[in-house]
């Protein structure tokens, strides 16, 4: 079966392609921060939902927000390197690999993109 992945959500939801991040990278930090934000929102909801009689409308049994980044990190922890594999990395690094090696493919979605700049000395030959 051929899996076609168009974005990060589809990558997380499928089970045919394993995926991972580089350890101690800024990308891993990005996902850890987003997972922490999801957890903080969940804890705030839980506090309001379980402890407040004033906000009876918020007393629902099912958490109404999807925890996408927590799910992504859990999938990464359990990923092996066998079979099809996706590597999530900095967009500039991915673009370089994509254009340098024909065996790589890239999904079109970028996230957490940051601009890069170079400082050059006056009258430099570059």
TrEMBL record:
It comes from the Eukaryota. This is GRIN.
């Amino acid at each position: 079966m051929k899996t076609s992945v168009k974005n990060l959500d589809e990558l997380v939801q499928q089970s045919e392609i394993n995926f991972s991040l580089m350890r101690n990278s800024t990308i891993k930090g990005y996902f850890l921060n987003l997972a922490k934000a999801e957890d903080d929102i969940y804890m705030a909801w839980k506090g309001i939902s379980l402890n407040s009689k004033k906000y009876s409308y918020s007393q629902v049994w099912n958490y109404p927000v999807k925890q996408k980044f927590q799910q992504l990190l859990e999938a990464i922890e359990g990923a092996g390197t066998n079979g099809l594999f996706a590597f999530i990395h900095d967009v500039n690094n991915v673009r370089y690999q994509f254009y340098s090696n024909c065996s790589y493919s890239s999904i079109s979605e970028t996230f957490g993109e940051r601009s890069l700049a170079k400082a050059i000395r006056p009258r430099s030959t570059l």
